[in-house]
Amino acid sequence: METLSVYVGAMPRMARDITVRALRDLGSAVHDAPEDPTALQGSPPILIVAWQDEPLGDYERRVLAVAPDTVIIGFDWDGRRIATYELWPRRSAIGELSADAIAAAVEAAPSWDKRFDPISEGC
Questions:
Q1: Which class does domain 5-115 fall in?
Q2: Contact present, 86 and 76 (Cβ < 8 Å)
Q3: Could you tell me which of 5, 42, 52, 86 has the fewest CB atoms within 10 Å of its CB?
Q4: What is the pTM of this model?
């Protein structure tokens, strides 16, 4: 079984601790988000970020531009809302920040091919 690599962006320390613990419990490799979005790897690349003003900032938009198969799991700075952003296009609200919510979002991250599979979309 392939080890899942997940990138973690800037966020409050407590949120980072929860996120890293959830990822390690899943057996995922945890990396700091690179400054250059083209350095993201994985199938799909997974990026977890916290936002202060808007859900998808400049960095996240650049990530999706250079790696459209990336799954971005984002939550507000207070940890009250967490959501998954993908070029599916769709947004999935998950709820409040917790280790279980992070783990569920990472486990549910679809591959690029799955996003366009009519069976997985319920068509």
A1: alpha beta
A2: no
A3: 52
A4: 0.73
